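Annotated sample (chain length 189).
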Amino acid sequence: QVNSKLGGAPCKEKHVVLLSPVGKIEISGCETGLHEIKLPKMSVLPSGAESSAACEVCEGAEEMTEPLRQCTAWLRAYFCEPATTGTLPVPAFHHPLLQRDSFTRQVLWTLLNDVKFGEAVSYKQLADLAGNSRAARAVGGAMRSNPLPIIIPCHRVIRSSGDTGHYGGGHLLKEWLLSHEKLQKEKLA
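Output written by the structure step:
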C-alpha cells in the first residue's frame, strides 16, 4: 500500500501484465506514478537474445493510468525497438523509496541517468558516480531494493571482475538483458 503525499490517503493502485520476450512482467502504479515492476523468474533463457514480436499487455489494459501506459510503451520499445527508448518519456515514479532522500535513491537516479543502454558499470564505479567511492556494498543493497528494474537498469551493474553478479530476476534474466542490449547496440553501430 503506497500513500500519496497529499493527506496520506492510499493511492488507487492498478495492475497490468506485459507479455514480453522474457515472460510476464507485472507492473503496478497509480495516477501519480509507478509503484513496482515484478520480473518473471526464469529457469530457461528464451531462444537467442533476439526480441520477439510478442510484447503486449495481456492483463489490465482497460484500467491503465498514464504512468502505466508510459511504462508499457517504454518496455515494449526496450524489447522490440530499443533505439526509440531515448525518445520516450520515462514514467513518473511513486514508490516511497524514490520519494525520500537517501543514498539508495541517489544511486538509483544516478544509474537511471548516467548508465546508458548497452553499457555496464561496476558496483564501485556506480558508488563513485553517486558520490561515495567507498559505498560499493551499499550500491549492492540499492540494487536489491530497486522497485523498478529494467527502467532503472540495475541489470547493468556488474562486479569489477566482469562477473554479472546477482539480480532480482535471476542470473539468467540478467545475462539475457545484457546480451539483448549488446546485440541491439551492435546493430545500431
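Annotation: The chain is about 35% helix and 15% strand.
Annotation: Strands lie at 14-20, 23-29, 34-38, 56-59, 121-122, 157-158.
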